[in-house]
Description:
Transferase(Phosphotransferase), domain 1, 6 domains
Amino acid sequence: MQIPGYRIIRKINQGGMSTVYLAIQLSVGREVALKVMSPALNADPIFSERFQREANIVGQLSHPNIVSIYDIGRFKNLNYIAMDYLPGGSVHDKMATGLSTSEILRIMREMALALDLAHEKGYIHRDIKPENILFRENSSAVLSDFGVAKTVSSSSQMTNAGMVVGTPHYMSPEQARGKAIDGRSDIYSLGIVFYEMLTGTVPFKAEEAVAIAIKHLTAPIPKLPPQYSLYQKLLNRLLAKDPNDRFQRGREIADAIEELDATLSGSRPRYMSNTEPSAMHIATLFKALILTSYVAITVQLKALIKEIFSWRWTPKRGFYRRPDITITEVKTTPDTGENDRSTVVSTRIQKAAFYQAAARPKFSIARVLSITTVISILWFTFSVALARFELPAETRFPDWLANAAQFSAALVDEKAKAVLPLPASDTPQPILRTPRNELTVATGSNEGANDDAAIISSEPQALAQVAAGINGSEVTNTTPPPPQTYPLTIIAEPEDARIRILNIRDRYRHGIELPAGRYRVEVTAKDYHSYEEWVQIDDDAVTQEVTLRKMIQPGSVFKNELANGDLGPEMVIIGPGRFEMGDKSAGITMPVRSVTISEAFAISRFEITFADYEKYLKAKNLGQADDNRWGRGARPAINVSWQDAQNYVRWLSDSTGKRYRLPTEAEWEYVARAGTESSYWWPDNAKGKANCRMGCDSDFSGLFITRTAPVGTYSANPFGVYDTSGNVAEWVEDCFQNHYLSAPRDGTAVVVSDCSRRSVRGGSMKSSAEEITNFAREGRIPSKRYSDVGFRVLVELY
């Protein structure tokens, strides 16, 4: 398919009404999502009008959280819209991997502000659902697909009277009825999305759309699980059946979320650990624990109280259980003349049947234990939090409560030492609080005075008198001596790095004095990877040197300097990632397996050329490699065995001081795929994209003439790497196996002793288009030199 002004890269998504492609807008070189209406719908004027109207609506809504329109047009029988390309997937995609509550609240706030603008401009979306909330690269949420949107006061007959438009699981009650709607209908749909993001499921389910609609109309507002009870009030206003009881506009939702964030966040956030998946404020964690425990305790206490008060005791019968009493209200008939009165009939007349002697009551031990356990967890959590963190208003706690909490925290800490010893400065001590300006003095006169403690003023004069021993009194200092401390010094590179000790309150300073113990040190700096490690202080000063690793920007290009001042091959940095390796089309590329590349690396942008390779040959006095009379210089080096390639990377490592090697099969395929999932990194066939013998339409290879092309003749893939398909096949590190059963999932090489064949990847100028795919592979003899096999190199960055 061709649309003037655009180069279509690949299909992104397809629906019943249109197909969306990733394309390049050639006039500005911009990536866009090209939405093309199905040609089959052109005959229906309603669909054509809707398609055009979507562009007109979005064109009037300029907002960072609403998809942008760049162009709209028609070419032959194709209606198209060019809009923002949003590569971050949808809310539906992200729910599969899990969303944190902070992410959910952020998404809700951004969508609320987007709807606020749309409603202010007079447009109702009518199809709010997870699939229509997409993400930019910076993770900001974007509202898309205004295909069924309408104006509040529209006179357009886009739908028949009573017709319901939208997705059943997300329809508002008034939308399900087919009644007139306004922006509050979108707010209800957003509430359904909110519930689904929190719980992973929609609140109302049924096999048929009509049954789902009935639940929207009649079912009560769903209750969130206890851990999300903080958000129930927000959900109640979003999902109110009556639109007048909901938030009236998106700005109100955003304000409510901001207020909720302010409530949950403490003034001084204390993070549990920097290694947690997401840092949590201690105040937020404590509140969540209290709310969850409150629900459990309330249920258990109600059941326990009901059971206790259901028992009676009399001298005659002993213990017996009182029967449940049912109350029945009976309306009298008109004949009695008591129309306005009610008669209460009780089952007490049958109580004799229940008043049977019973054994002594057996209380539910499990119920009592569960309540005790929950209360204990709450108490010890509060104790540890009070000892280690600055809780709001802790100075107002009564002394007895603070003392008891400190004592409990010390017990917890004593038990925890066996698992993870803490530094002495972080060990809570059961220190009793005494009133200010008072000092406890033990009287010790020789005249038989009692030994009870006396309270005297702690004013300076009184303290001096006590210190001087007036009246022969002996002062007993109840404060234990401070522990021995030792200096800790962290020398960081770069010099402006931020240094923190995570498991104590004190701010780090060079040479900080600390008691013996273990300390979690964190060093961070902009554009560097963070460093975190436990440091042990025993009985001496500790000095630690930390050099942070520079963050590496994928796509950056560099050349390392050789020992003679020349430059090595041009390298491009490849970031870490995950991909599906292999293909089901052939046995030697199966089974398909998920491979994770955990560290960034750099790979040569081009196949190693004769110009690169001859620097090594010259340095080692090895003569020249045969070029088959195809040309040297920028053409890929050929007639190089696997062992020759290994010798080259060893020389390159020695000459530059860097760690060069051949890429593994997994690394090679990860680079060749460049984030794509198709057979080639380009979306269509191989014509004009690579140098191969058949199906590539190459100027260098044909039915009778086959030769290599200068590297870089064809376009680079999205990672900035050239010629992964065709030109020359490439040696890699692995021993060749005719399957992937033993291939590691971490991207490392397959190693076999006495390996008879080594893997080559990517096909060559002698291959057909079907043989130069991203997953193409074969085995070659490592000691043999081939005219269609070259190599590229990888340098480790860490």
